[in-house]
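To start, one record:
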Amino acid sequence: MSSGKPMILRGSAADEDELHALVKSREKEPDGLFQRVMRPLDERVSIKLLMRVWGPRLEFAVRLMLVATFIDDSFRTGLHFSDHIKQVGEQGCLRWLAQSSPNFVGVLATVALAAGLLSQAFGSVCLLALHQPDGATKALIGWTIAQPVLYAQLSNFEFVSESLSLVGGLFMLRAHLLPELAAHGAGARTQLIGRLLLPAGYIYRAGLFLVSALTLDETNSLGTYVSSLSMFVIKTAVLIGLLISSALVAAGLKSRTIALVLALVNLVFVFYQHPFFLFVSLHHGQWKYDEEELYMSLPQLALTGDINPLDIEPWMIYDLHRYYFFLGLSTSGALLLLAQFGPGEIAIQKDEVILPSYRGD
């Protein structure tokens, strides 16, 4: 007759020892950084319960951040459509044809910009409404790749690297919104491609810090030398931190934690570097640009040989700051997407936990 005891009691001593060792190892498993930080809060309020309630709202906010640059760019393009036609036709990729066939160039630029405007507007709305995510992500990825080519900005490495990071975020969102990809294994590969592209902007920043750190000025002044040496140490530390973070995100090791930290740091940097809302003010019912601040903080821009930076109009510099601001906001959204949903199946640590799990729901 059956003794009625649990099956585990009828196992061998080796099985029991193995079970006890597994339980003991889990009890001794060290908590992650955010688990330790969030434990006091979780002891008072169940974070898992909060995430269950606020998770959909948070997911919408992350999607909104990711498409923010497309929404803003579609508005800016619509408001200054003729100026953008001129930029693409006379200063962009079609400038070699502008002298001989100006009318044809105008038509080509109009068609290309109209297609881009529609792709950004409808793609953003569809992703926010979770409608046709397949076509929406393809349209936004296509425009993000085409935009540096149309505006002849392929030598603008900041712009290109930020665009690559944005494409990475769109790939990750595509893998998340299209579960049918997972059935064929394409979803994991799509997440891998997105994760590899995400750190592109930070690798570019690391290159800037490397160049800056290597250009230590020689001086006879002790104070200036100490100050330069201190900046060298700081820039070297930032360089190492960015390289390690980018490598870990690409490999999928502690990627959720690092992505969350990078997203917050990136938000601070964007608000500091491109505060477009501080460069314009309302005077007697008219918007006035702070031209001195704008020209002193001109963002990186690839210019053709016949264009002087001083010839750029204030509203164009303001638009550049505004574009880079929302581009950085979208990059933070892409990083938060990684922090929220994880690195995918093709990762060293695919089951990383960043929220505490101490209490039952």
Summary: The radius of gyration is 25 Å. Residues 216 and 228 are 6 Å apart (CA to CA).
